[in-house]
């Protein structure tokens, strides 16, 4: 791995200050990235369910972190595509865990599969595929 | 149309209070829904570009509003799928306009095509297809 | 499982006669469906690579078979959506294996994740998510 | 436009001989590409409806042709992603028309929106977004 959890968190805080405190990195290794969201009022829809944009944001940052950890600082890497299926309501009041797996890491494109689950539950709440464009190295 | 802009805005404020003031409805008619986002600090990434989750949220609510206006109050209609392509950086400091067109409105599923553009620009910033599940009428 | 491999193959031959001999079912169990394509001339592009439509067809039938095996004969189940990422060239002259996993099987919608790999290779050639509409039981 | 209909058809026959006679180009201009499929037995499912893989193939080639006409011979351009929604049954025995519009044509990626309709019908049968990777110019 190119970066440790601590280095990634530091870097995220630099380049995405608005996201400070939103997400936590639980694990970063060759096979998988695990990130966690503890839902707050601003993440919810009436009824207490986590909003679509919040789930999209979690999947997106999990993919970004997976790529970042593999190839180092890539502030200019941008999401070009996301396909996401929302399949079940997340459990109210329970942390949402994102499990990211890199399917492809090429010279200019990366594809990451992300599954979102309520902590402690086997069922997938949402499944996403994110494609990132990777800028050429200077 | 089942509801007017004013009725839709009132309804949105009831069922999605967290979204109060986020988005504005510019037009609602048979062919098309137009919604507007005026970007604030919380919508931006460093460098001033609008974040992916913000664009996702705008596309999502434009689709929801298009369906709502056509068939009336549907608080339980939920997004089941979104495919979104991010193609260009939006213009900094310019409102983002979402143009939604219903492609299919069936008994249980609706598919809406949404194009996002910076106001005044012809190029598409992001293009999305959203699928909503429509609950059976009581 | 509602149906055995033999029963599924018989049923497929009945309802999709044009697909006779195209695909083989390697395994059907609770967790996973495995299907195989042995590429012929008609499946290829110049250079010997398997065509996109062929890979789409394999992913699509793998999803259909996974659902069929779980809930029995569903001739009217139809694909409503597919998102597919083509990530690597398949190995020329090697069978293509589809691994399908049901992510959600609801009353009216099913979502299946399908990974395509060249036999004997760990890398994913293509990854797809297919959504099927399931007709209400008579 | 870089190529005429006649030049594109000649080029397609060279690089995709298996597709000879499958599809016809009706129009090629700055805004739009129109292609036509006349359904034959091999394109159909029981009941006479056009198969998903056939519709995928039509959308895919419409996108490829749109790009080809704009930037010239690009045999190595490959589909990297497709999101497709199947929304209505096509009319039996009627030609299927694909209308392709380039949403983005960058240095390395192109995104094309394709709508499929039965000839003479306003309703969209299927809507797709295809992303193509464009190889760097030699």
TrEMBL record, chains A, B, C, D:
GO terms for cellular component: cytosol. Residues 47-123 form the Thioesterase domain. InterPro entries: HotDog_dom_sf, PAAI_dom, Thioestr_dom. Keywords: Hydrolase. GO terms for molecular function: 1,4-dihydroxy-2-naphthoyl-CoA thioesterase activity. NCBIfam families: unchar_dom_1. This is Uncharacterized domain 1-containing protein. The lineage of its organism: Bacteria, Pseudomonadati, Pseudomonadota, Alphaproteobacteria, Rhodobacterales.
